[in-house]
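subagent[fold] <- orchestrator: predict structure for attached chain, return tokens only, no commentary.
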Amino acid sequence: MPEETLRPEDLEGSRLGGVSLAVLGFPVNHSISPALHNAALAEMAKADPRFSDWSYRRLEVEADRLPEVLPKLRDAGFRGLNLTIPHKVRALDLATEVDSEARAIGAVNTLLAGENGWSGFNTDGYGLEQALREELEVELAGAVVILLGAGGAARAAASQSLLRGCRELWVGNRSRERLDALLASLPANPGGPPVKGFPLSEVPANLPKDGVVIVNATSLGLQADDPSPLDLSAFPPETKVLDMIYNPPETTLLREARVCGMRAANGLAMLVHQAARSLSIWSGSEVPAAAMFSAARQALP
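subagent[fold] -> orchestrator:
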């Protein structure tokens, strides 16, 4: 199965054949999505031959070219697309239809081709919810969530927590400006759970400590010498921790969580489940997540 990174120009005048899927981003060469999706498609083809000519590629597309490239890909026969940085927010205005969860999150990471254009979805929140359930036995409904970060991934996590009826949502971030922007972007929910923000440099004394799940959506942890985004020593061992980072597999936050005796998990399960949900949208079929997990572990260093 093809896993090279292509440019839109590479597709002009060519006949790919079969059913094409792709991830669009800039940069995108680091994405392991082709390994996950092609492994699942190979497994699906064993039971249903129609998936034998489906393939998933990487496409490098700059932010300002997305409006130009999307119609060309649909005309070229692409059935589905994943979107990563920097395309998720812009795609909201380019999709002819956007489902309610993507609209609430304010970003699209999955596009499905139709007769009149692209339909937009967001599977990031679903991936988070499944990862919390499987890895940490946490249900968002009724949970006290402490979310770290204010970027796109944090926005999806915050929206999913509110959509599923969390009991409280606390959001911490290094930049107050970005924190305020995220809080302002969340859907209005009169009578819903309280939502409170705080700077990570000034953790409030009334921050919940008991029965909480901490979700890291910051970039702290991508580098080996990154500090933990939050001091876990004040939290009891029953605290549960999910770090969205999956490469490296263990961040400073996760190491500290294990030292404190806490149950913790990285973002691999979130990655796999959001991918499986996307492929389910495109195929209308059940997707073997186990094949994706295996491919992800092989693709990571």
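orchestrator: received. Logging for downstream: The mean pLDDT is 94. The first strand starts at residue 5 and ends at 6.
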